[in-house]
Amino acid sequence: MRSSGKLLTGKALLEMIRSDFIGLDTKYETVGGQQTRRVYLDSTASSLMLRPTAQITADFMRHYSNTHSKLHHSAHISTAAYEWAHERILSFLGADPNIYTCFFTGSGTTGGINRMARVFRDVHPDKDTAIISIMEHHSNDLPHRKHMKHVYHVPVEGLDENQMCISLPKLEAALRTGAGKVSYVSITAVSNVTGIINPIHDIARLAHKYGALLMVDGAQSVAHLPTKMFYPDDPDACIDALVFSGHKTYTPGSPGVVVARKDHLLSIEPEEVGGGMVDRVLEDRYLVKETFPDREEAGTPNIPGAIALATTIEILDRIGMHTLMEEEDKVLVEAIKGMAGLPEIIVYGGTDLEICPRAASISFNIKGVDHGLVAAILNDYFNIAVRNQCFCAHPYVKEMMSDDLEAEFGEIDFGNMSPEFMRKAGMVRASFGLYSTLEDVALLMAALRDIIQNAETYGLEYALNSDNDYVHTSYQVDNKGVFNIVGAVDKYIGD
After folding, report:
1. pLDDT tens, 452-464?
2. I need a surface site. Which of 20, 172, 352, 451 has the fewest CB within 10 A?
């Protein structure tokens, strides 16, 4: 931990902290009883904790108090830090504080999207349609189905075109067809399946051209790409609302975040009411605050989580998101290159990054080997943590796999899927973070080559359990023995 000297920025800061994440040195037992370092390639699901953030947050906790007061020392410090957290995130996203507000939600990106879906619905009560894409995570799909009368899914470009990138011509066609009825467009900035990057500002121009608002799911982008919400010289390119999650931004335990235009929020009464968001409460009525973020944050917020997230944002900003993106691209390109050299591997989505840029994730399958078996082998034999199945993006995954699935199973009834079908209808996803290295990619490639060469032998070592998951028949690690909450308490309070 640095205590003096020149303050580091850019690549120098990146090199100092990229190995300073909690859990990078965690070891687990693999088949055969060997203890090896975990290779964490599941950052798209949830990223590891930046150690300086944890330490700085622990320092803050010495001064912790509830906010909404500056009367005593601790309350003053907590309130000031919590206010700074909002301001820091607005600045990081290039959101003019005169136009936008930032507020925190309790259930990550999901809570924020639900809130803004209700707001955008009520801002345009005469419009009953939302447009999303087929590549969306369920958290940017189901809220719109619940809160809007009609939801249209824009298809992606096929394998002979841009390979599963969003189709801007088809988006504009949908907006033109629904002119006067489309309240808003809601699009992921980065796919959680393929890592494909969508041109959100081009999408903003299209949405605004046809009188619709734009909401962006930034869950997979904020930690990996430079993001700017406001362009004073190009108002049509501005984003109306962006939502992201702290736990995917190197700060597990932190809340979700909404950055949105104040004018839209002012026209709609807050969804949640309670202490902190009212000016006065009388026997027969209450008066909601006109000021932000108080208006949108009823009750006691997750103060430590918000401050922790803003601390991480401060560090990322000092590195520079362009610098960070360039370094992460090296890892991604190496993974794509490595898989391209293995004809047995199918990579989903375009791999020409000039045509279809990507960030952070790559989803794949090994021909003839179920995705669940591949993921299990990677964990059990190589201590490589990946994720498999459909990643809460069922329509997108099924679209990319439809030809192969139909060839094997014939006509597919997605409402009546057999266990055998489910073992085939999914992918393996390796996803990367600031801490991912070329060594991690090399270990993944070596493991995949070994699985390809010895797939039949590995298959004999596994059986299916009642959940349709592959389980090793002789290797069983008692993870309660590795970490157990009650055991940790016992150790702390024991003699």
Report:
1. 999 999 999 999 9
2. 352
